[in-house]
Design brief:
Structural class: alpha+beta
Radius of gyration: 21 Å
Number of strands: 15
Strand content: 25-35%
Distance between the termini: 31 Å
Amino acid sequence: MNSGKVPVNVLKRSVLRQLKNKRTEIADSAGLGADCAVFAPFSKGQMVTCVQEGVVELQCENDLAEAEREDLSVMPMRRIFQKCANNLAAAGAEPVAAELVIFLPETVEEPELKALMEEAEKAATDLNIQIIGGQTRVSSAVRQPIATATGYGILSEAAVTQVSAGKKLAGQDIIITKWIGLEGTADLAARNQEKLLERYPAYLVEEAEAFDRYYSILPEAATAVKSGGCTMHDISEGGVFAALWEMAEGAGVGLTIDMKKLPLRQETVEVCEFCNVNPYELRSGGSLIIASPEGTAVVEALAAEGIPAVIVGRFTDSNERLILNEDEVRYMDRPQRDEIYKNV
């Protein structure tokens, strides 16, 4: 397609017609000749917003060089929506809507754009999010499709109270849901599948690749909000160490973590050892950090919903951020570049 706005007939046929999921919170969506979406009025609660960007995969990639296919910054469209929804859920909000902006290279044809929009709509529908508008543009300056999703969520009045009550982190338990390193393990397993199969049984490699089924943190975030005042942070780029450091730094507190309690799947251990990466600094979408003054009660509530969770430490009123590993004590470093890029 040529640089500039996507032609009107293409916009109607391959973009707007793909958008089917609707929510009662949206009074009117953006569309052809209408640049703004309208939220229905709501008298209680607050609106929450976040932005998630990414270089996205095409369904038809014949024109891409091998190096571009293996670029670990490239992700499926569905993951952009999942990350956006996870950010909203970690803020205590229910994801409701999203705006989507896509920049396309001139080499992209209409069937590929339609496939991207179908994938976006499926991801949004699975998360019960309505795509309410955005932009689609072609540019000669773009090598691969780039997408930005701006997500909108609603924080109920009760959730506002609960989340506000948990803002003072000092003295609160640190809970981690599911297992760290899920996202990075799946990416590394897919990238190194053939080599991994030479060392490990097929079931282990297949299970590692399938960790994307755990990416959503919406169930545990909703359960945590119902269980009392808490602050949450999804674990993504940089891994669990980066997420913990960011939480402590943002609140101006310290922390103490028992490294032996950080939950790891055996598949992650094996894949990370094979790829020579540190699982504690590996992208960990699908895992949530919850700070709560009643950690045991939150863990029990999560367990009742079938969600694994464990208390791994506590936030403190000092400036020290400590990692305990049996008799060894060391200070937590500032966040480093995600370990997955060592495997490029």
